[in-house]
Amino acid sequence: MSRIASVFAQQSHKALIPYITIGYPNIETTLMVAPLLADSGCDIIELGIPFSDPLADGVTIQKASFHALQNGVNPKLCLEVAKELSRKVKIPLVFMTYFNPVFNYGIKEFCAACADSGVDGLIIPDLPPEEGLELEIATRRYGLDLIYLLAPTSTKERIKLVAEKSRQFIYLVTVTGLTGVRDRLPANLEAFVARVRKITKQPLCVGFGISTSEQARQVAKIADGVIIGSRIIQLMEAGSESLILLQDFIKEIRSAIDKER
Amino acid sequence: MLPDKRGYFGAYGGRFVPEVLVRALDELESAYEETRNDPAFWVEFDLLSRDYSGRPTPLYFAERLTKHCGGGQIFLKREDLAHTGAHKINNALGQGLLAQRMRKRRVIAETGAGQHGVATAAVCAMLRLVCIIYMGEEDMHRQSLNVFRMKLLGAEVRLVTTGSRTLKDAVNEAIRDWVTNVKNTYYLLGSTVGPHPYPLMVRDFQSVIGKETKQQILDRCKCLPDYIVTCVGGGSNAIGIFHPFINDTEVKLIGVEAAGKGLETGKHAASLIGGRVGVLHGAKSYILQDDNGQIQETHSISAGLDYPGVGPELSYYKDVGRITYVSATDEEALEGFQLLCRTEGIAPALEPAHAIFYAAKIASSLDKQHIIVVNLSGRGDKDMNIVAEALGVKL
């Protein structure tokens, strides 16, 4: 069984999946934060490989990506960071990046390097399944899980397609919009999740705009996992206190989610 | 026929977009397919092209320029005389009518030089559509006249301060807006780039340039030209004039990219000559990227060519050898600009000034019976400040 699949095999356990941009604010922080996330009750860590033109991201992650690139972060370095982390951290690691850095690295070479670094899966927000065949083949070959996304605009046919192609879970985007902190969850989220549930038995993890424990609790009630990105990046901006703030935040989210067992 | 069903021209094109947009692109594709097969649409398009945009634009024999070069005959396809001053109106009109048909009242667009923004703003004013234009801060500064024009035409111009603050970043912001407001918004993309079906639509609407050129040159010279020369940024004017000649293999098709401060300096915007295959703004094509697959910052004196990608169809024709790509530097474009001003009394936009320079160079090497058509894709009024600055003149 893939390590990601094991996360969802736990009875009545909701997954908590944080996102961090590698190299933001610096590599040392990434190396410190990931173990801290794992110890605070996270189930999978999404590691962002920064891209110069992150189309699906709002201002917070755009800035973090830009900053990381200024720090000289590149896919090779990200693979090294993942390799180091996979030795320290017991939970699965998933790379999140855009297609061009992967394509430029060489699809097969990149997947081989991911496997070598102990990475478990990939999320590529600008790669719909129609364009994903080559990466699907390569990820399977190297034992990686390629996770596809669904959006509130996805039709029934597309839900079927993504459910068939996505490995271990499906990433549900809460809104027609970008990543970023929002005051409230969209009203139609429950209906959207239900619509997908009707079609597939795959675990569903929900992300984009989730930033409070109450929102996380609401999501955990209807989904199998909660993905949090921008809020974590914001907390990491707090300088020397950021690690404590982050740890408290994750613990708070964890306990809110666990109420919905 | 290219593109294929998945929007590919050979290995290029496709649809690399966030899931949120896939449905919108499917809807756009089917709406366009229906529209494309509706003769009534083309009647309306042709009528407005004539009465609103001022088509057909003339094919002008540049006799003084020809004499100056002392070789082949140079003809200019006068897209600079089209309404709003460039070929951009053709596509803005076609897609504007499509947006209206799709009942999308909110139109967004990106602009580099401001020509596509102005054309979109004009069409939106005429069709009474809400218009929002994204423009990089750097471009707003160098094309301030066009910013004012867009505002006069009722558009809201939104400043883009991310990345290199030029066309690439304006496209990013427009896509982000579309992702967010996809239900009521039509994205009126201005070049033959982006996810399928944009490269197809833009080509179809811009092909009017090549169709007219073909008829005009046959009427006048009873033969096809030996060369067609045009500038290539994203590639809308290029594919527009080239496409109707693709099967006329005796016609040499030359695309001139922006070499900026020189290809060897790395400060240029020549994606086809200096780039590698990658994915940018939803399509696979030649792009300018670094060793890590990050999109590179570009440089060109002309804002309209200052873009790190190019249309997938133009990439395809590079690989199969149907179009030859060359480049002209900022300095050479300025030379072309002044040459046309002095010989013909026409100030070209800095974008086609690249093509003028290169065409003049080819012409000098040819015999008199050879014919060269240059796509004079826009007029130079918008560039006066830049040219003055480059020539060290204080206005």
Overview of the structural elements:
The complex is a heterodimer of chains A (about 260) and B (about 400). With about 260 residues, chain A is of the alpha/beta class. Chain A is about 50% helix and about 15% strand. Chain A has one domain (about 5-10, about 15-260): Aldolase class I (TIM Barrel). Chain A has a 9-stranded parallel β-sheet. The longest helix of chain A is centred in the C-terminal third of the chain and has 17 residues, at about 240-260. In chain B, about 45% of the residues lie in helices and about 20% in strands. Chain B is built from 16 helices and 14 strands. In chain B, helix 5 runs parallel beside helix 7. Chain B is globular and about 55 Å long. At the A-B interface, helix 3, helix 5 and strand 6 of A face helix 1, helix 8 and strand 11 of B.
Biggest beta sheet attributes of chain B = 6 strands, mixed
Low-confidence stretches of chain B: none
The global form of chain B is globular
- Helix segment tally of chain B: 16
CATH architecture of chain A: Alpha-Beta Barrel
**Radius of gyration of chain B, taken over Cα atoms and rounded to an integer in Å:** 19 Å
Name the helicity range of chain B. 40-55%
Unreliable stretches of chain A (pLDDT < 50, length at least 5) are none
Oligomer: heterodimer
Q: What coarse outline of chain A follows from CA principal-axis ratios?
A: globular
* Strand order within the widest beta sheet of chain B: 3-4-14-9-10-13
Number of strands of chain A: 9
- What does the largest sheet of chain A look like? 9 strands, parallel
- Structural class by SSE content of chain B: alpha/beta
CATH superfamily of chain A: Aldolase class I
In order across it, which strands form the biggest sheet of chain A? 5-4-3-2-1-9-8-7-6
Whole-number average pLDDT of chain B? Answer: 97
